[in-house]
Amino acid sequence: QVQLVESGGGLVQAGGSLRLSCAVSGQTFSSYAMGWFRQAPGKEREFVSGIDGSGHYTYYANSVKGRFTISRDNAKNTAYLQMNSLKPEDTAVYYCAADLRTSYSVSYFPSAYDYWGQGTQVTVSS
Protein backbone atom coordinates (compact mmCIF):
# COMPACT_ATOMS: atom_id res chain seq x y z
CA GLN A 1 0.00 0.00 0.00
CA VAL A 2 1.27 3.44 -0.96
CA GLN A 3 0.01 6.67 0.57
CA LEU A 4 0.48 10.11 -0.97
CA VAL A 5 -0.15 13.40 0.80
CA GLU A 6 0.02 16.70 -1.08
CA SER A 7 0.61 20.09 0.45
CA GLY A 8 1.49 23.60 -0.64
CA GLY A 9 -1.58 24.74 -2.51
CA GLY A 10 -3.24 28.08 -1.92
CA LEU A 11 -4.33 31.39 -3.37
CA VAL A 12 -1.80 33.44 -5.31
CA GLN A 13 -1.92 36.38 -7.68
CA ALA A 14 -1.11 35.97 -11.34
CA GLY A 15 2.64 35.97 -11.84
CA GLY A 16 3.26 34.48 -8.42
CA SER A 17 4.75 31.16 -7.37
CA LEU A 18 3.83 28.12 -5.33
CA ARG A 19 5.63 24.90 -4.53
CA LEU A 20 3.62 21.73 -4.12
CA SER A 21 4.96 18.78 -2.18
CA CYS A 22 3.90 15.14 -2.28
CA ALA A 23 5.04 13.00 0.63
CA VAL A 24 4.95 9.29 -0.13
CA SER A 25 5.02 6.27 2.15
CA GLY A 26 4.68 2.54 1.71
CA GLN A 27 7.20 1.29 -0.83
CA THR A 28 10.65 2.04 -2.16
CA PHE A 29 10.10 5.52 -3.51
CA SER A 30 12.87 5.46 -6.10
CA SER A 31 11.41 2.36 -7.78
CA TYR A 32 8.51 4.13 -9.44
CA ALA A 33 7.68 7.13 -11.55
CA MET A 34 5.65 10.05 -10.24
CA GLY A 35 3.23 12.36 -11.96
CA TRP A 36 1.40 15.58 -11.25
CA PHE A 37 -2.07 16.10 -12.68
CA ARG A 38 -4.68 18.81 -12.32
CA GLN A 39 -8.41 19.06 -12.70
CA ALA A 40 -10.36 22.27 -13.14
CA PRO A 41 -14.13 22.44 -12.58
CA GLY A 42 -15.99 20.86 -15.47
CA LYS A 43 -12.82 19.58 -17.12
CA GLU A 44 -11.06 16.26 -17.30
CA ARG A 45 -8.00 15.50 -15.23
CA GLU A 46 -4.92 16.43 -17.25
CA PHE A 47 -1.25 15.64 -17.11
CA VAL A 48 0.96 18.44 -15.86
CA SER A 49 4.37 16.88 -15.30
CA GLY A 50 6.12 13.60 -14.59
CA ILE A 51 9.47 12.32 -13.39
CA ASP A 52 11.16 8.95 -13.54
CA GLY A 53 12.34 7.07 -10.48
CA SER A 54 15.90 8.34 -10.64
CA GLY A 55 14.83 11.96 -11.06
CA HIS A 56 16.94 12.34 -14.18
CA TYR A 57 14.13 12.48 -16.72
CA THR A 58 11.30 14.98 -16.55
CA TYR A 59 8.28 15.67 -18.74
CA TYR A 60 5.90 18.59 -19.00
CA ALA A 61 2.64 19.53 -20.63
CA ASN A 62 3.13 22.27 -23.21
CA SER A 63 0.95 24.59 -21.18
CA VAL A 64 3.39 24.62 -18.25
CA LYS A 65 6.74 24.06 -19.95
CA GLY A 66 9.22 26.72 -18.91
CA ARG A 67 7.14 27.76 -15.89
CA PHE A 68 6.86 24.59 -13.79
CA THR A 69 9.66 22.36 -12.53
CA ILE A 70 9.20 18.86 -11.18
CA SER A 71 11.74 17.24 -8.89
CA ARG A 72 12.03 14.49 -6.31
CA ASP A 73 14.12 13.78 -3.25
CA ASN A 74 14.33 10.01 -2.94
CA ALA A 75 15.97 10.27 0.47
CA LYS A 76 12.93 12.15 1.75
CA ASN A 77 10.32 10.16 -0.22
CA THR A 78 8.95 13.42 -1.56
CA ALA A 79 8.12 14.82 -4.98
CA TYR A 80 7.81 18.51 -5.71
CA LEU A 81 6.23 20.78 -8.27
CA GLN A 82 7.63 24.29 -8.37
CA MET A 83 5.16 26.56 -10.16
CA ASN A 84 6.30 29.99 -11.32
CA SER A 85 4.65 32.69 -13.41
CA LEU A 86 1.26 31.34 -12.48
CA LYS A 87 -1.74 32.22 -14.62
CA PRO A 88 -5.46 32.19 -13.83
CA GLU A 89 -5.84 29.21 -16.16
CA ASP A 90 -3.58 27.21 -13.82
CA THR A 91 -6.39 27.25 -11.27
CA ALA A 92 -7.32 23.65 -10.45
CA VAL A 93 -7.03 20.90 -7.91
CA TYR A 94 -3.57 19.40 -8.25
CA TYR A 95 -2.93 15.72 -7.62
CA CYS A 96 0.25 13.72 -7.35
CA ALA A 97 0.23 10.10 -8.43
CA ALA A 98 2.51 7.07 -8.33
CA ASP A 99 3.01 4.61 -11.18
CA LEU A 100 4.28 1.40 -9.59
CA ARG A 101 4.64 -0.39 -12.92
CA THR A 102 7.85 1.32 -13.87
CA SER A 103 10.75 3.39 -12.71
CA TYR A 104 11.91 4.30 -16.19
CA SER A 105 9.00 5.72 -18.12
CA VAL A 106 6.39 8.37 -17.43
CA SER A 107 2.81 8.06 -18.63
CA TYR A 108 0.63 11.01 -19.57
CA PHE A 109 -2.53 9.03 -18.83
CA PRO A 110 -4.21 9.05 -15.41
CA SER A 111 -5.25 5.40 -15.83
CA ALA A 112 -1.59 4.34 -15.70
CA TYR A 113 -1.17 5.49 -12.13
CA ASP A 114 -1.87 3.20 -9.22
CA TYR A 115 -2.08 5.56 -6.28
CA TRP A 116 -3.25 9.15 -5.88
CA GLY A 117 -3.08 11.85 -3.30
CA GLN A 118 -6.13 13.66 -2.01
CA GLY A 119 -5.45 16.78 -4.06
CA THR A 120 -4.57 20.35 -3.17
CA GLN A 121 -6.36 23.45 -4.44
CA VAL A 122 -4.39 26.04 -6.40
CA THR A 123 -6.21 29.27 -7.16
CA VAL A 124 -4.61 32.02 -9.24
CA SER A 125 -6.33 35.38 -9.21
CA SER A 126 -6.04 37.87 -12.05
Question: Can you lay out the helices and strands and say which pair or pack?
Answer:
Layout: E1 3-7, E2 10-13, E3 18-25, E4 33-39, E5 46-51, E6 58-60, E7 68-73, E8 78-83, E9 92-99, E10 115-116, E11 120-125
Parallel strand pairs: 2-11
Antiparallel strand pairs: 1-3, 3-8, 4-5, 4-9, 5-6, 7-8, 9-10, 9-11
Q: Give the SSE string.
A: EEEEEEEEEEE
Secondary structure class reads mainly beta
Largest sheet: 7 strands, mixed
Low-confidence stretches: none
Average of pLDDT: 96
Distance between the termini: 40 Å
* Counted beta strands: 11
Beta percentage is: over 45%
So how many helices?
A: 0
Q: Output the radius of gyration.
A: 13 Å
In which range does the helix fraction lie? under 10%
Shape: globular
Q: How would you sum up this structure, described in words?
A:
The protein has strands spanning 3-7, 10-13, 18-25, 33-39, 46-51, 58-60, 68-73, 78-83, 92-99, 115-116, 120-125. The protein has 126 residues and is mostly beta strands. The strands form two sheets. Strands 2, 4, 5, 6, 9, 10 and 11 form a seven-stranded mixed sheet that branches. The protein has a four-stranded antiparallel sheet with strand order 1-3-8-7, with no helix packed on it. Strand 4 and strand 5 form a beta hairpin. It is globular.
What are the salient characteristics of this protein?
single chain, 126 residues, mainly beta, 7-stranded mixed β-sheet, 4-stranded antiparallel β-sheet, 0% helix, globular
Structure described in brief:
By secondary structure, the protein is mostly beta strands. Helix content is 0%, strand content 48%.
